Amino acid sequence: MLSSFVLAAVALIPGAFTAPSFLPQLGSIFHGKDSNAIQARQGGYFWSSWSEGGGTFRCQNGAGSTYSVTWQSSGGSSGFVCGKGWSPGGNRAVQYSGTYDPKGPSYLAVYGWTTNPLIEYYIMDAHGDLLPNEPWTSKGNFTIDEGTYEVYTSTRVNKPSIVGTTTFQQYWSIRTEQRVGGTITTGKHFDEWSKLGMRLGGHNYMILATEGYTSGSTTSNGTSSITLG
């Protein structure tokens, strides 16, 4: 639902922020007047952190392959997405472990983008309340990595993206047996999506992300601590 973009050169050391705070002038260029975004590389991993609106989103860029988050969204357009991964993304066996304790609308997922076509995608292993802001269209299900995933598409109209505000599709794989830890084989999802007519483009970044946001009057809060590998 939320998106990030290359906006700032930052020191490649662990860092944290509270929104809305120290990059409003950069966030306003690409994501609206109340957004913040950082991208960086550290220890061979790509780090991305984006937030908008009020609330407190403390995304801690830890050492090596680790990160942690504590968050509390507020009313209105309020939310964040952050995590570690790779740029570009693509076919990869994403191994991870950790903890994830959400309340309200929230996702733990492999999250990424492609261009030509512009697609925002999620391969979701765990979640809080499933309250998407756009209608989902069911495309079926498949079994991968010892679990069943329900597949959906949705369309965002005139929303922020990695190429600016535009209209684009979202692809979703949602694991029915939730878990926090294991292996997500992204190429298997991409292959199954292709069989359903869900075409991807050239891969941009891909992260193992935590996301929390406000949907209507329902706010989100929680903690997450994730290690890749």
How would you describe the overall organization of this protein?
The chain is mainly β and 229 residues long. The protein contains 2 helices and 14 strands. A 9-stranded mixed beta sheet has the order 1-2-5-13-7-8-11-10-9. Strand 1 and strand 2 form a beta hairpin. The protein is globular.
Quick recap:
This protein starts with 23 loop residues before the first helix and ends with a strand.
Q: So what's the overall shape?
A: globular
Q: Which bin fits the share of residues in helices?
A: under 10%
The tally of strands reads: 14
- Give me the strand/helix succession: HEEEEEEEEEEEEHEE
- Sheet with the most strands, sense and barrel status: 9 strands, mixed
User: What gyration radius follows from the Cα positions, in whole Å?
Assistant: 16 Å
Features:
229 residues, mainly beta, nine-stranded mixed beta sheet, five-stranded antiparallel beta sheet, 2 helices, 14 strands, globular, disordered N terminus
Q: Topology of this structure?
A:
Elements: H1 24-31, E1 35-42, E2 45-52, E3 55-61, E4 66-73, E5 79-86, E6 93-103, E7 106-115, E8 119-127, E9 137-144, E10 147-159, E11 166-175, E12 182-185, H2 186-195, E13 202-213, E14 221-228
Parallel strand pairs: 8-11
Antiparallel strand pairs: 1-2, 2-5, 3-4, 4-14, 5-13, 6-12, 6-14, 7-8, 7-13, 9-10, 10-11
